[in-house]
Write a structure and sequence with these properties.
- This protein is elongated.
- The two termini are 22 Å apart.
- The protein is built from 3 helices and no strands.
Length: 64
């Protein structure tokens, strides 16, 4: 889970640097959209996959 958090942090830093060079129009609207996209499509899946791997045995995992 710490690896997932580190990957998300690196991505956030990179996107923040890119955002500094973009125009400031609609900044709050775009920021809110990007926050929710990042949360649901990047951060949560990594955390949930890591949690699932702790509780599912490897023999069941090969069947999927």
């Amino acid at each position: 889970m710490s690896l997932s958090a580190l990957k998300a942090l690196i991505g956030a830093i990179c996107l923040s640097m890119i955002g500094l060079f973009q125009s400031k129009q609609n900044y709050t609207t775009n920021t809110k959209k990007y926050f929710w996209i990042a949360l649901f499509e990047v951060v949560l899946p990594f955390i949930l996959i890591a949690q699932g791997q702790k509780y599912v045995s490897s023999s069941i995992l090969h069947l999927c």
